[in-house]
Amino acid sequence: MKILIAYDGSPCAERALEDLQRAGLPAQAEARIVVIAEVFVPPLESADSPASETPFPEVQQARALVVQEMEAAQHDAMQAKARVQALFPGWAVHTDVSADSPGWGVIKQADAWSPDLIVVGSHGRSALGRLVLGSVSQTVVMHARHSVRVARPSSRPPTAPVHVLLGVDGSPDAEAVVAAMAARIWPPGSTASLVAVREARMPAVLAPGAAFLEKWVTPHTAAATGWLATMLEAMQQPLQAAGLTVTTSIHDGDPKRLLPALAAEWEVESLVVGARGLSRVERFLMGSVSATVAARAHCSVEVIRPGTATMQPLLEGSAR
Fold it and tell me: In the Cβ-directed half-sphere of 197, how many Cα atoms lie within 13 Å?
């Protein structure tokens, strides 16, 4: 497993490292610590420039700041590497330091390296940057092509059982959620809550041609409930095989509000959703469910994107 960890030395970034112990990650993995120095690198004068063409004092100061920031970023990277290696002795840990915009710098590194999971803290150093330009974690969740974990701290010890909530809707990305969690290694006694949310807006935004989605048009009928129950039954089997105690439930409401509320009520440590659900128009008009859940939840949130390899559908043979 390849894990890219965005780090900036902030307390939130430190808590994100601790949260890794509660994510069911394997004992053997390859991790890359990515530290982005938020500075502009002024161009250097060419070697054949006349000696009289000395840079302006402001340029000299800017270059000195770049050197200072890059050295600090390198220090942060080595600090995070030591911390991760202490937490996971079996991991091969590397560092990468660059100057860029934090969110987009992380995305560029992920595009180049293709990790299985990107880990970011929910907040970073720059409160003003979050206020004006939006959270770095939200940028990564919205635009990365890979699965993302927005890490928040837990008060429970690393070896204690974990409670994860999986929001599913029958889409391929929801199947990827189950497959990803079933591949993890969980402490004994860990539980998974599979939650399907019936949304009243769904009939208005169904894409034409998707025949199996017609079962959502009358969400309160016995047929629709039966389809959801069949879906949940199929999805819980691989989770049980991974040693998780699984419960299933069907709820009515807005998933962007309901899933964080259930996570808080049930005191789960991780809320896991797919990057895309059944409703494409809903995402365009009202924003991504996954991004909104990642912003609102008080626990860690993972947004799962399917890998490039073809996955065996979990619902094969079911009424889908």
Answer: 24
Sequence-separated (6 or more) residues with CB below 8 Å from residue 88: 20, 25, 27, 29, 31
Same domain? 213 vs 168: yes
Q: What is the pLDDT of residues 280-319, one digit of tens each?
A: 444 433 347 888 898 889 999 999 998 743 334 444 444 3
Task: Give strand pairing partners of 253.
Answer: none
Kindly state whether residues 24 and 81 are assigned to the same domain.
yes
| Domain coverage including residue 215 | 163-304
Are residues 140 and 171 located together in one domain of the fold? no
**Sign of the torsion angle spanned by Cα atoms 239, 231, 260, 108:** positive
Count of structural domains, the chain: 2
Tokens of 130: 């979050």
Q: Where are the beta strands (DSSP E) in the chain?
A: 2-6, 30-37, 92-99, 117-121, 148-151, 163-168, 191-198, 245-252, 270-274, 300-304
pLDDT, tens digit, for every residue of 163-214? Answer: 999 999 877 888 899 999 999 999 999 999 999 987 755 444 444 445 545 5
Evaluate whether 98 touches 105 at the Cβ level (below 8 Å). Answer: yes
